[in-house]
Target: Hexokinase
Amino acid sequence: MSFDKNQFEGILKDFTIDSDELKTIAADFRYDLKKGLKDPAESSLKMLKSYIGLPTRQEKGEYLALDFGGTNVRVLLIRLEGDGKFEVLRKVAKPLVVPGSYNYIAADATAEQMFDFIAGLVEEAVEGDHAKQYFLGHTFSFPSSQTNLYNAKLITWTKEFATPGVEGEVVNDLLKAALHRKGLDNVEPTAVINDTVAVQLAAAYKHDNVNIGCIYATGHNTCYLEPFADKAEQPMILNLESGGFNRLAPGRFDVALDERSEKPGEQRLEKMVSGRYMGELFGMALAELLGEAGKEYGFTSIDMSAIMEDESEDCAAIRALVAKKTGRDIAAADASLVQDLVLRIVNRSARLVAASFVGILWQLEGEGIEQPQTIAVDGSVYEKMPHAKENLEKGLSELLGADAAKVETVLENGGSGLGAAIAAAVSQN
Model:
């Protein structure tokens, strides 16, 4: 069989956002920012305070960084040298789960066991030094409520974590108690940030005017420096949890994906842009083209990258991948259409992310961009997905016109560690 051309065009249209729609989305994002600054309950953006501003870029000294965002935990000893220069002096990384040996994220583990394990990594990073004082910054990438830079309480575990005794607790208190049990009273946890804030801090240590930080990967989130220009508050990075932005018009595949997702009705933007969901959206569309609507093939964003990278005339790699995943052989002409479909889904993702950035820029600068702006982005989609960065920048140009020349996006892929060290340094100033 070959694809029905009318059906294919209809599917492409479902993943298309024109210029007018893009401008509306950017304006709606700005609207939610303005509403959220007055009352977060009235916005789909969380507007979470980080209690930290940008570094001066003159921060110097040795600081510990704890990167705790998944099952692999890292502790780094980093020397900040000012002006964006730094050196990782030591790095210790171990998993919280080793099958057959230990599992510190299971329901039968304890908070004490988990944090004693982490304190052991800290002890390795300082090479058993129990005398010299170290300040520790902590990138903790789980939903938390925070009242100052130190005090972050875990609201609920995600990512299959089930360790009891942590939810509702101040994670730095648990860490501090574990360090004390190790005799490491010379290590002082001083700051907790999330991974998106860490990306912005790390980039702002190296570049000027980094007012936006973003993770564009398996998941999606953005933060920005809110100047509080008309208030007495100090400028502060706000974590938007922007994957939850919902002032969008989802297509029928988005609606179907949402209905069968773990949390229907939540994370609307994330489900339209992130690496975790793009492969699923593509698979749903391909199933319709193959006359198998509703069938799940298990395509991933890595598969989408492979499809876009096939430049051969007969699309051999695409045909082989489709055959492997679906059990169906397709003609070269249809394989070329498959590539067009993947590109359209990636293009839509990048344009939506661009619209969210422009919404923030309009909030910061008004309709015209006066100052140069640097947007720090970390993540596999931005870094590795063919055409993602290119289409993001095209979206910025489409929305900003000539002002787009004043906006630069930069890759910041070491943020979790460096950002935590910078947060520790800033906490002492």
Notes: DSSP finds 14 helices and 15 strands in the chain. The chain has two domains: 5-47+205-411, 60-193.
